[in-house]
Batch of 4 targets.
Target 1
Amino acid sequence: AVLGVGKILRANPLPRLVLRPDDFEIPACRAMMAEARVVVGKELQKLPLSGLEFVGKYVEKPAQSTKLVLLNDGPVRKNKAIKKIQTKTCSVEFKPLYERQISRWIQDHLRERAYQISEDAALLIHARVGTNLRVIVNELDKILLNLDERKKIEVEDVRKIVGSARSFSIFDLNDAVGEKDLHKSLLIVNQMLGSG
């Protein structure tokens, strides 16, 4: 059966086989010692038309012992094979967060883990790390390891632990000035002057 991405990603105990466009095939073997095998087809946008047609045929009658997840990092191509795949499957689009949403996401993420963060500390993490959620989570984990018994992250915690992994360009500075965001503008200028 072809399942939604969210259900698959939560199914950790299932054995996985990750395929790339150059070796894309659907294994006919059954899952060993598990309910199902998860097959992940990455970079679907790079798959040739013959490969898309093969996947289109497969999704018409999928193996019950295989859960197929197809990942597409680029724009969706328009052809008969893609239409067939779309009609027989469900799709989920994961759009990246906008810059203005990152601080709220950090607060919500920590709230789910029974922690708090000051608004300034969340903004500082965003300014130092950028918008990559995986990097943000890694930095938050480092901070949480050093909080001792406290449950709230402050600016000083971020300054001590989080390095500046983000590099800004002149265009970022231009955007910050255009938005009349003095704090962000000064942060970008300071980082640009510090890095030469």
Target 2
Amino acid sequence: DKLHLKGFDLETMLAYSIAPTLPLVALGKPGEHLGAGRIQTTNEHWQEEILRLMQSARLILIIPSHRAGTLWEIATLQNGGFLDKTIFIMPPELHFHGGKFSEDWHKTVLAAGEAGVKFPEHIAAGAFFRLNPDGGFADYSPFVSEEFLKEFEPTGVDLHFVERYDRNTDGMDIADAINSLGVDGVDFGGGADGDR
């Protein structure tokens, strides 16, 4: 399921925010969507592929859910010792599956708790957050999608922009929010002054 914020899907927003520093990679059919590069796999081998990606990744981004496959990924992140390089994404409040995202998030908090992972309750503005190695809440940074959305033309995404964000000191972008959580070996440079 794609999460859309004011017409932009979250995956594409993330891909543009962290490129060219890090590639965004996911499982799926190559070319099926703008955003993350895709690695094709089968239902029988997807867990092996995810584990391989987790082991080699410098940064892991995940939108938690209460679905069995995502809960397996979250348990694998904790049991494999990968939480130190993982940032969880809590999207802001939006309509999702005929309801509000916060309602779906509450189901996720409960399911993750049963697996020994403590997610925070939903924050209407959204957040990026990290967990301690034991699965407890560690830190968060606000989700700053408004700053990112200012980059795009009202008619759609300009796929040919080369310059990074001309940010000012009264706002952060997604890469700044991720940087603020301090994953070792990951730095998108700059900061709110626009130097990248």
Target 3
Amino acid sequence: VSTGSTSVSPALYGLFALTTAVVLTAMGAHLLDRHRFAEYRRAAELESSEAFAQALLWVGQALNEVVSQPAVLFDWDEAGQSFRLAAESGAPAAVADELNAVGFNPQFMPAFYRALTRSGTVFIGSESGMDLFPASLRERWGVAAFASQAISRGQRIVAILGCCYSTARTDFGASEIRLLSAIGSQAAVALENAHL
């Protein structure tokens, strides 16, 4: 009497189970290794970001100690395509909050950004550069004069260092210009080291 079934060797089931186990183990090892490397890379990027933030904070504090005036430091935010406040020292709380919320978008002050890109420094006093910094902002923030220094990496501005003065100034002295430039150069080195 024939039932119509075929017999399958039990060895075939064992071979199928062994093949399945080998394939799943190899895929699991590959995925684990790939995700482990991704986590390692994320941890390294986070550590680099923390070092970068520390370097920015050091620059802001150093500038404030040297000039005893409010100082701000903006760094480039690739995602937002604008500069964000990275550190501030000595600014009134309302001004710091506004700078933190708004940041600096080069499109809103194109003449200022072009001047900064061209020369690396911008000085705004009672007799120069007033057209580069909107009067409404100067009044609201209590800024009578402003000195800024670009911090570049190659040809690209990665941060902007600024020092605000609440009293009017006709011009900035050579020693102040050299000091701001030196701090900007040191900041560029510190930021470069933080990225390594």
Target 4
Amino acid sequence: IITRRGSQLNHLTEKDLVETGVALNDRFTATASSELAIHRAIYQRTSAHAVVHAHPIMALSLSLVDDEIVPLDAEGQDLGTVLVVGRKVIRDVREVVDEVAALLKDHKVVAIRGHGTFAIGQLLDEAHRWTSLLEESSRLIHATRALLVRGRGVRLVGAGAGRTVLETGAGYGVLFERCTDCAIESLTVTGGARDT
């Protein structure tokens, strides 16, 4: 069972569900979701009995800037590291069918850069749980980062300490990660619980 092509999550009804084959096309295949090929590959190559494909906004935003999503919270750590597939934003999931199916042999959920997530389980509730856990963990990651700085030679320069204040309201305030020759100059960062 898969959603009908063009159906929307917040308006799903029983009519939006299509029963079609996992291996062979039938008369309902043409009406199935455009992600049918990746669903089929996951069922055929993993032990999954249920697949949830979603577009969770916080996880999706992390997939645009990170190659992996590493939950910080205790519950989220049940997911392990969530890998992000694709070097660029993936518009057509048929480009990554094999990679996603292969990764889901050893992972509960995989993110596709700029597209969404695929989670597996023995039951639909389990796959949904992994998707929800990833989204909640992604919210926490966003809350702790505030401003993430990466790159080379990045400088945040103010008009003077106390005169220029960057108030982040998040744990790290400004997080320099994989940043070479980066610095904060003449700037006060405040608002985060870990400010020093």
